[in-house]
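Retro notes
What went well: the complex prediction finally ran end to end.
Inputs used:
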Amino acid sequence: MQLILRTVVIFLALWLVLRVAGKRQVAQMDAFDLVTIIVLGGVVTQGILQEDYSLVSALVAIGLVTLLAVGLSVLTWRFPGADKIIEGEPTILLQDGRPDETAMRAERVSMANLLAAAREHGIRDLEEIDLAVLEADGAVSFFTRRTGEDDQPPEHRAKAL
Amino acid sequence: MAIQTLPEAMTGSEATRARNMRRIGLALFAIPVVAAAFGVFGPRETTGTASGSGYELTVHYPQATRSSIVAPFSFTVTKAGGFGDDPVIVRLDRAFVDRLDFQNWYPVPSAEANDGRQVVYEFDPPVGDSLEVSLDARTGPNQGYSSDDYHLTVLDGDRDAATVTFHTVFWP
């Protein structure tokens, strides 16, 4: 039972970490993030299993984390309102070619990040962009003026910021 | 030659089959979680007692335990009137001892013998009527599953005075 409680607490703590860290942190991994993830992995294992190296405990922890993850996705599907809390909301970073500096500051997206994401999308000039949206998973969706006018979804999404 | 990258659209029955397969998978994941919630994998411990020939033997043992976790094991031998100068002799199944990874008994036995199937421990007589012995042990690593009866016997000379039979499940 303690194993179950520890797993639930650690899962909720990790979910909170991802929500607090912001959208950028979810998708982008630089060298420091890699170190953070390695450290977190070790701490999480220690926190859940402690000195219990048994096979059954590992199976219980894996099973419970899987069920909790599926449970969260079911929650977001059944209650659209919960989606905002669980996964976060998309943020408009740029509209009509003009970057929204307040939104960019809030999401810790620099102009260099935005330009890089636009380049990866094959966009040469910000003037071409009708709308740039930082999605909840950290990816950026671009609506260029041509696709925007037709009210079409973006053909593909830029790699995560 | 053109190579299509788009998958074919799922039919209703295919989607239902895929969903059912996922549900079966989730149910499989849920089995160990539910079992753990009901304490199937332990750790659980309990106490057994037996008496005979003036001796009373109480054993505190793990009912269910897992690899590497603490496995509490202790016993108390009581004899009304005390043990005099006679040592306290107990016999424990070797199969149980082999499954544990332990530092030592407290108090430390004064003598130990092993006949292959059972281990005999001899303790100096305590002051008073009872001897309490505990084992600082963990379940050994790399264990397979087993569910067996084990025996701890207190001896009166060469004869068995009292035996507690206990059942322990070892989970890998």
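What we learned: The interface with chain B takes residues 1, 3-4, 51-57, 59-60, 62-64, 66-67, 70 of chain A (CB under 8 Å).
What to try next: split runs per interface for comparison.
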